Amino acid sequence: MSVLKRISNLFAKPTPPVAEKSMLDLGPGDICEVSLVSYEVTGRVGNRGRNAVVLTLQDGSHISYLLIEERESLQYQLYRPIDGRLDDPSQVPAQMELDGTQYYLEEEYGGHVAVVGKTPFMQGGEQHVWQYQSDDGHLMRIEWQHGRFMLYEGVKVIPADVKVIRGN
User: Which residues are 134's β-sheet partners?
Assistant: First the structure.
């Protein structure tokens, strides 16, 4: 190694450490753990207007969806898809009953989403969302985009039960 090379290495700035990914930054190929179950992230739907993402998670043959929303702190909700049918977005009710549980509309919003990887909606665009909660804390989520409905049932997850295992 030449003397000039050694001297330039003395004055060179060290390379900054690579920042660790947060749950909001995960995308297809990353691995995370939710409630002691490891999942591969296979898709991501991001809503920049709400600072929220929905990750498609796969554990073997099971698919789940993790809603991550940053408000005062990060909030997590884990969903699984359910069978159901609605015909018209203008007729989504304020109360719904599913398997003997009464759900009440908690929030309704719309916004532009960006899609990456395997998700229920294969392209981005305007998405409308209805979020419900029951008296016992169970959650239901309805999404409408491009003329198609998706229904999910889920639970809130405490932040301590969610962590990044490997981020690409």
Answer: 103
